[in-house]
């Protein structure tokens, strides 16, 4: 019985620690890394809720440290379409079976990984449609898998921003979106060992990464995020297929 309890808690702690460290170092990656682990242990509904709640806490901490570097105009252009699509996306996913939601979450994570890894750029993203499309896709993915980052990361890749500006703007966007999403889908109710593991992982991962913020190159962090997120996405697909 002890192993049955500690196993999921350790899995959650490791996944959340890696995700928290990646978010501190690069400004993104928390949901892509932590989401699959939490969904596997807690199921798609509770896993997404807890992923978003933990991400919100991390957004607040990082935003407090980078507030002066936020691009507020771009933040609002991304946030409005994202927030408007949260409720419709929740309505649709709430009527899908667990296996379908888990599988869709896996596909969403893997698609985001593939797009980020490809370095794909499109001229239309530079225009007015760019932030609208990125925000809309991000809002839907946040409900589906707690993973709002990939479309925003693609949008940021088209901007010549410094790492600090990118990190600050992504937190300013993600924090209110996560608040809206939790208001629609509900707060997490998970307790026990997995919740303790998630809390420990969040603090330990972020704390260990903080001293290295200016020492580890973005290419290394990006490669780590993509690799671990890919493993998580494949795990979700496997869980959906096997039931």
UniProtKB/TrEMBL annotation:
The keyword Cell membrane applies. The chain crosses the membrane at residues 52-70, 76-93, 100-120, 132-156, 193-213, 220-241. It is a multi-pass membrane protein. It is found in: Cell membrane. InterPro entries: TM_pro_TauE-like, TSUP. It comes from the Bacteria. Keywords: Cell membrane, Membrane, Transmembrane, Transmembrane helix, Transport. The keyword Transmembrane applies. One of its GO terms (cellular component) is plasma membrane. Its main location: membrane. It holds the Pfam family TauE. Belongs to the 4-toluene sulfonate uptake permease (TSUP) (TC 2.A.102) family. This is Probable membrane transporter protein. It comes from Cellulomonas carbonis T26. The lineage of its organism: Bacteria, Bacillati, Actinomycetota, Actinomycetes, Micrococcales.
């Amino acid at each position: 019985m002890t192993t049955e309890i500690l196993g999921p808690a350790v899995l959650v702690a490791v996944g959340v620690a890696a995700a928290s460290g990646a978010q501190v170092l690069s400004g993104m990656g928390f949901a892509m890394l932590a989401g699959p682990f939490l969904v596997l242990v807690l199921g798609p509904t509770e896993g997404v809720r807890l992923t978003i709640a933990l991400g919100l806490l991390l957004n607040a901490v990082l935003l407090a440290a980078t507030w002066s570097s936020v691009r507020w105009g771009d933040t609002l252009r991304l946030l409005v379409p994202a927030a408007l699509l949260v409720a419709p996306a929740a309505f649709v996913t709430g009527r899908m079976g667990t296996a379908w939601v888990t599988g869709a979450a896996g596909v969403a994570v893997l698609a985001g990984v593939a797009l980020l890894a490809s370095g794909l750029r499109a001229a239309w993203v530079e225009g007015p449609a760019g932030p609208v499309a990125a925000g809309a896709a991000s809002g839907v993915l946040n409900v589906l898998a707690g993973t709002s980052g990939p479309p925003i990361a693609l949008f940021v890749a088209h901007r010549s921003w410094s790492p600090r500006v990118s990190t600050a703007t992504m937190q300013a966007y993600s924090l209110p979106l996560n608040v809206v999403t939790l208001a629609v889908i509900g707060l997490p109710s998970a307790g026990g060992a997995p919740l303790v593991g998630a809390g420990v992982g969040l603090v330990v991962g972020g704390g260990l990464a903080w001293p290295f913020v200016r020492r580890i190159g973005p290419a290394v962090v990006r490669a780590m995020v993509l690799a671990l997120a890919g493993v998580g996405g494949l795990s979700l697909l496997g869980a959906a297929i096997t039931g």
